[in-house]
Amino acid sequence: MKEHSGAAALIMAGGWEGHEPLKIAERFAAFLRGEGFTVRIEQSTDVLDDLSLLQSLDLFVPVWTAGPAFPYAHFEKVAEAVGGGTGLAGCHGGMCDAFRHNILWQFITGANWVSHPGGDGVPYRVNIVSKSNPLTEGLSDFDVSSEQYYLHVDPANEVLATTRFPTVKWYHAANGEVDVPQVWTRRWGYGRVFYNALGHHDAVFDEAPAAWTLMRRGLLWAAEGKRIAREQGLSADDWKSTRGMY
Question: What is the model's pTM?
Answer without folding.
Answer: 0.97
